[in-house]
Amino acid sequence: xxxxxxxxxxxxxxxxxxxxxxxxxxxxxxxxxxxxxxxxxxxxxxxxxxxxxxxxxxxxxxxxxxxxxxxxxxxxxxxxxxxxxxxxxxxxxxxxxxxxxxxxxxxxxxxxxxxxxxxxxxxxxxxxxxxxxxxxxxxxxxxxxxxxxxxxxxxxxxxxxxxxxxxxxxxxxxxxxxxxxxxxxxxxxxxxxxxxxxxxxxxxxxxxxxxxxxxxxxxxxxxxxxxxxxxxxxxxxxxxxxxxxxxxxxxxxxxxxxxxxxxxxxxxxxxxxxxxxxxxxxxxxxxxxxxxxxxxxxxxxxxxxxxxxxxxxxxxxxxxxxxxxxxxxxxxxxxxxxxxxxxxxxxxxxxxxxxxxxxxxxxxxxxxxxxx
Length: 372
Fold this sequence. Notes:
The protein is α/β, with parallel strands linked by helices.
């Protein structure tokens, strides 16, 4: 790990940070990045767990710029001590090392896989003051009833929406939760609380405005340099900023001065365990297995944020469909339960009508799904 961090912070070569579950030809990706004149960049996947993700191209100077902005916002100093409990192939993990390097603060990596007991032990042993977690990890800490390390002054929560219920439970038990809103394309945070009593405010490095349908658009020096996407076997560079440098985030928000309230996504993307899951893509996958008599939907779940369940018309072989689908899917994309309904609502062209489907589900009230 230390060699990788050295390459990340001090190296000048193109670096691909990939989730080990993805089958990626890193050499091919590097070549494509350099062919488009983006040599020396850091590449991160942003479309979750799909086999052919879209890669975000980030310059090291933008990552450092983001780190400086976060450090200033949260008053990070050389006296602080970070615990990194997130993987470096996610922007939430790698950004900790840039913040530490810029502020000359220390950072300790959580050993092994995520474990709430080990996390608390690590924080206590190194007198940690700061860390970043996703809501699932916070859920585990609250659920386990663990004592809050006395040295912690802030736990930055990002990666997915934090439910008010979990937030309130965590604060009641003394966990110093600070909510943030960010994305890979921005090099980490866009808006963050300074304290749990504060509202979520934009970092000083960002200009922000709302466009059509209240979609947040951002502009600033720490934006990414474009996407690399494999289309029909060929890597292509996709520029996502307009001519004036504005980037549409895809999130609907309320913006009042520098204060930000995130309302939700404008597309079909949700997050499970902090991973992006594209619902339209999953629907296409399930239809390739079982035709038009089934639908995949996401329902709220306390620990994971969401979980995926199958809706199926009478006569559909649910067990076989779920088995085939889950064989083609990785962890967050797997179906965990099902319910039968009389008819899957569709439009004139056969496309799933999610609004009509939601009305059907609402009419069922608290009827539970049958878990598999």
